[in-house]
From TrEMBL:
EC class: lyase
Family, similarity comment: Belongs to the NAD(P)-dependent epimerase/dehydratase family. GDP-mannose 4,6-dehydratase subfamily.
Gene3D superfamilies linked to this entry: NAD(P)-binding Rossmann-like Domain, UDP-galactose 4-epimerase, domain 1
Catalytic activities: GDP-alpha-D-mannose = GDP-4-dehydro-alpha-D-rhamnose + H2O
Job description of the protein: Catalyzes the conversion of GDP-D-mannose to GDP-4-dehydro-6-deoxy-D-mannose.
Chain sites annotated for binding NADP(+): Y122
Record-level GO BP terms: 'de novo' GDP-L-fucose biosynthetic process
Signal peptide positions (record): none
Organism: Zymomonas mobilis subsp. pomaceae (strain ATCC 29192 / DSM 22645 / JCM 10191 / CCUG 17912 / NBRC 13757 / NCIMB 11200 / NRRL B-4491 / Barker I)
UniProt name for this protein: GDP-mannose 4,6-dehydratase
SUPFAM superfamilies attached to this UniProt entry: NAD(P)-binding Rossmann-fold domains (SSF51735)
């Protein structure tokens, strides 16, 4: 039975990746950072019904010694580095922490792998945010990067360290340049989930309006369940490499609102307000990915339409709020 170590196991992708690997017969071990609010830990794993099927080990991405000890004791065949301060907007408020966790955290983990288990295969969660101020209308593995936030700068460092450890030490390290992917397990602060939660609250009479920022930015949105499959496929290749993972369709926040509100028979224009609080100091206006390399080499394609995914998310948020209402 192969063993996988997942950092960021309590996040959206960590939960879906755990589910996928368990279904393939893996032993799944997750890195858990200690929290005083232990009762809320593992909410997503619980939602998927797999909380008792994964093992947890205590550690932190900023603590190299904990990572070395964990790699040494777990002896993973595959390491998935999903841990990050992943909210772009927060990275302007906490740029140094973002650098330490999202950037240096990856370097710490690469070091731990190099020292304690160099035969392990390593996956780095890179991001389309690295393209930032886009240099080509459609972004592929060959598109130059231009990060636009402290988060994206940190991710770029982690990305190049992943490439560098492959080239310098011959480690089996791969980097997935994933475009936005969402699900009912998405954090509430990200725009898709904020909108689907807002739609549910408005529909149930719990709120009257929803306040957002820039409605004209566009994103290439896919489903997290599809995207974790791409992570696993990358580590099954004999030769490590970097891949863009995207749907090839870009949609504005405004269109997203239209899709989500009309799913429950409402007109978004009657409910959306905008606030400068949700605009960013530097915006990534457009992202659109070309995943043809992943399709060709990994046999990967996105299988879920934006409309189906938003419907699934609105339904899940309606269920959550109805449960709370009793
Ligand atoms: P989430 O924000 O949902 O999850 C982040 C995870 O990182 C959580 O488990 C969190 O733990 C953990 N974490 C944060 N800080 C530390 C730390 N100091 N030590 C250990 N663990 C820590 O992110 P997603 O699941 O959405 O994304 C997974 C990865 O993929 C991230 O690296 C993200 O930047 C990247 N990515 C995501 C995309 C997306 O669209 N979702 C697209 C491209 C890249 P806790 O629960 O304790 O907070
Ligand atoms: P992003 O996701 O920054 O692309 O990063 P987010 O959903 O936060 O923003 C997407 C776009 O929506 C605009 N927007 C708003 N965003 C938020 N959060 N809240 C609002 O009220 C709002 N109004 C408009 C934003 O300005 C932006 O243009 C996500 C994260 O998962 C990263 O970790 C990951 O690397 C990238 O996706 C790919």
């Amino acid at each position: 039975m192969p063993t996988a170590l997942i950092t960021g196991i309590t996040g959206q992708d960590g939960a879906y990746l755990s589910q996928l690997l368990l279904s393939k017969g893996y032993r799944v071990v997750g890195l858990l950072r200690r929290s005083a609010s232990a009762d809320v830990i593992g909410e997503r794993l619980r939602w998927l019904g797999i909380i008792d099927d994964v093992e947890m080990v205590d550690g932190n991405m900023t603590d190299l010694s904990s990572l070395i000890r964990i790699i040494d004791s777990v002896s993973p065949d595959e390491v998935y580095n999903l841990a990050a301060q992943s909210f772009v907007a927060a990275s302007w408020q906490q740029p140094l922490l973002t650098g330490q966790v999202t950037g240096m955290g990856a370097a710490n983990l690469l070091e731990a792998v190099r020292i304690a288990q160099p035969s392990a295969r390593y996956y780095q969660a890179s991001s389309s945010e690295m393209f930032g101020l886009i240099q080509e209308p459609v972004q592929s593995e060959r598109t130059p990067f231009y990060p636009r936030s402290p988060y994206a700068v940190a991710k770029l460092y982690a990305h190049w360290m992943t490439v560098n450890y492959r080239e310098s030490f011959g480690l089996h390290t791969s980097s997935g340049i994933l475009f936005n992917h969402e699900s009912p397990l998405r954090g509430i602060e990200f725009v898709t989930r904020k909108v689907t939660d807002g739609v549910a609250r408005i529909k149930l009479g719990l709120a009257k309006t929803l306040s957002l920022g820039n409605l004209e930015a566009t994103r290439d949105w896919g489903h997290a369940r599809d995207y974790v499959r791409a992570m696993w496929l990358m580590l099954q290749q004999e030769i490590p490499d970097d891949y863009v993972i995207a749907t090839g369709r870009t949609t504005s926040i405004r269109q997203l609102c239209s899709i989500a509100f009309s799913y429950v028979g409402l007109d978004y224009e009657e409910y959306i307000t905008t606030s400068k609080n949700f605009f960013r100091p530097a915006e990534v206006e457009v992202l659109l990915g070309d995943a043809s390399k992943a399709q060709e080499k990994l046999g990967w394609t996105a299988t879920t339409s934006l409309e189906d995914m938003i419907g699934e998310m609105v339904d899940a948020d309606l269920t959550r709020h109805r449960k709370r209402l009793g």
